[in-house]
Amino acid sequence: MHDFFLGIQGQKSAIDILSELHSQKRIPHALLFSGISGIGKFFTALQFLKVLNANESDNALKKIEHLAEPYIKLIFPLPRGKGETNSDLPTSKLAQDVIEEIQAELQKKIENPYHPIDIKNANNIKINSIREINKIVSLNFDEIPYRGIIICNAHKMTIEAQNAFLKNLEEPPEGIVYILITDSPEYLLTTIKSRCWEINFAPLSNEDLEKVLTERYFLNKNDIKDIIPFANGSITNALFLIENNFEEFLHKTILILRYSLAKKYYTALKEFNDIIEGNSTNSYQILLDLIIIWFNDTLKDKYSIEDINFSNYKETLSKFNERFSHAEVDKITTTLVEYRNAPFRNVSLNLLALNVIFEIASIGIKGK
Questions:
Q1: Structure confidence by residue, pLDDT tens digits, 166-178
Q2: Which residues, 6+ apart, have CB-to-CB distance to 16 below 8 Å?
Q3: What angle do CA 186, 188, 189 make, to 5 degrees?
């Protein structure tokens, strides 16, 4: 393993693959890093580019670390400016305050590669951002062994942006490595995925999660110990729970379960919408994670396994098992996982929430 990989928490499998590719001098022109958000995919991409340029000067490696062109071209979702057309530069029609917001987010990313770039109203990767790639790759920098084009949230490329990017993949230039980072590879065109070497990244262990949160975000171990088991191995999830009143989030989860099992659909939906207000897919997915964890805890309680996450709500687990002893929890959780990973572009969160509530309520109906 190269020294540059040593700072990455977890991801041994991904690092082993990248190390082997490097040692065999078989560097793909395009890599697809897939896995849930907040597990170090971007940091690994950055360190891999350092590995590829390891014989360069310290100054060159610093430029990679600071996301400086021409070593790196970073592509990510941007808002659309007033009167913007596809022929405009990606940021030319954006207001000054939006430009400053982008610059601030990039600085945070430089200081902490685990930081997720979050810009208001930045829902898609625009075609004019993809066209910027052509300008980068057309310039000759033979003195740089490998330049990286990193596309964060690659699944947010519009269809026209994906088709434009496909042309880059069809004729890859020497010395350019494309790295697509995504937690939803199913949204990418099959023709794009087939031209990439896909590497899957795993959720972080609780120990690795704690290490990143304490060393990169300077959080106190005691303040995060109760949150980590509910983060599903994701830094993004952990930070969301920290910033959104973790205890209240757990309480809301219990209320949704209680009202759904009692077939109080309207009340359950109201509690659900309080959490996913503003069409937040992130809050919806984290809520589903918590509901799935709760159902898994009912099985642990049923078989007297002590490693329970909802330990402060153990009474609700026991009452569930007493009342619904024949519930097929494994089938329920399988369905809930499907709803959790639903294609959000085609289904509203409100409809998904109703389906979740009806699925939970069906336990009481079947139990009669």
A1: 988 888 888 899 9
A2: 1
A3: 115
